[in-house]
Write a structure and sequence with these properties.
By secondary structure, the chain is an all-alpha fold. Helix content is 64%, strand content 0%. The chain has one domain: Tetracycline Repressor, domain 2 (Orthogonal Bundle).
């Protein structure tokens, strides 16, 4: 490929793929250059250094997996259906969801840490608001949001780490659908929750 054919977005996509496959350490300019099919020198047409590329990849992840997801479910008028749609999307098998455990594993990295913190805060605020819309008080909504988010992170980590032990987390068969439906019932139902 000529330099003009490799865009900034191509480098960002390659960095995201590397993050999914091997975490922050896998985002190496030489490796990505081979993946993109161009010389290492062309990298510097788009980025000052590796950290700038990493920051761009994380910004893309934040936009796609937080901002756009929230924007897509927000128009759903019924609060229960909105939360159910959000959970179904979050627990789905989109390849980008494999990035979450890789980032959590590098939560102390100076480029990853502020983005991970900002994304977690935004998601928790939105989840809490969803539970408030279901009629829970502030403290109860926050508790339920914490449980839902911890479940989400655990679900993704288990799906990544031991998919053969828990095929219900990765499959599309009847059993997997039943587990997802049960989890949705548990996380969305607020009938037994104290309102405060």
């Amino acid at each position: 490929m000529a330099k003009a054919q490799v865009s900034r977005e191509d480098w960002v996509r390659a960095a995201i793929d590397a993050l999914i496959e091997g975490g922050v350490a896998a985002v190496r300019v030489d490796t990505l250059a081979r993946r993109v099919g161009i010389t290492r020198g062309s990298f510097y047409w788009h980025f000052a250094d590796r950290d700038e590329l990493l920051a761009a990849a994380l910004a893309d992840w934040e936009r796609l997996c937080t901002t756009e997801v929230i924007d897509s479910v927000q128009p759903v008028a019924d609060p229960e259906q909105r939360l159910g749609t959000l959970l179904a999307h979050a627990l789905g098998s989109d390849a980008r969801s494999r990035l979450e455990p890789a980032l959590m594993a590098h939560a102390g990295h100076p480029v990853v840490a502020p983005v991970l913190r900002r994304v977690t805060e935004r998601r928790m605020e939105y989840l809490t608001r969803c539970y408030r819309d279901l009629g829970l008080g502030k403290a109860a909504a926050r508790r339920r949001a914490v449980v839902a988010y911890a479940t989400y992170v655990g679900w993704l980590e288990l799906r990544r780490a031991v998919p053969d032990v828990l095929p219900e987390l990765t499959g599309d068969d009847r059993s997997a659908k039943a587990v997802l439906a049960h989890l949705n019932d548990v996380l969305v139902s607020v009938t037994h929750e104290r309102p405060v």
